[in-house]
Amino acid sequence: MRNFVRSARGITVAGIYVTPERRASLLRMGMTDSYPEACSAMVMDADGDSIVAQALRSDDAICIENGTHSPKYSLKYFIS
């Protein structure tokens, strides 16, 4: 799960929550970071049309079932 916050730079990751089971799975695959941890330094445009920016502007929670295949949640929205 990933939480975002608006900052002076744009939208950044505010919190990362990885279950112990997921952490163990990542370690078995030889990975030390989850996807949110790996991209936590990235910034999104707060005024953009990404689903995250829209959710922050509206204060509505949005659940994306499968972010890997969702056209609404894409790395194209990150600006750095």
Indicate the percent of residues in helices.
25-40%
Number of individual domains:
1
Strand order of the largest sheet: 1-2
Low-confidence stretches: none
Computed CA radius of gyration, to the nearest angstrom: 13 Å
Task: Characterize the overall form.
Answer: globular
User: Largest sheet, if any?
Assistant: 2 strands, antiparallel
Strand-and-helix sequence, N→C?
EEHHH
| Number of E-type strands | 2
Determine the N-to-C terminus distance: 21 Å
Structural class: alpha+beta
Global mean pLDDT? 78
| Strand coverage percent | 15-25%
Output the number of helix runs.
3
Summarize the structure in short.
The protein is of the alpha+beta class.
Question: Can you walk through the features of this model?
Answer:
The chain has 80 residues and is of the alpha+beta class. The chain has one domain. Helix content is 26%, strand content 16%. It has a two-stranded antiparallel sheet. Strand 1 (2-7) and strand 2 form a beta hairpin. The longest helix has 9 residues, at 20-28. The relative contact order is 0.20. The model has no long low-confidence stretch (mean pLDDT 78).
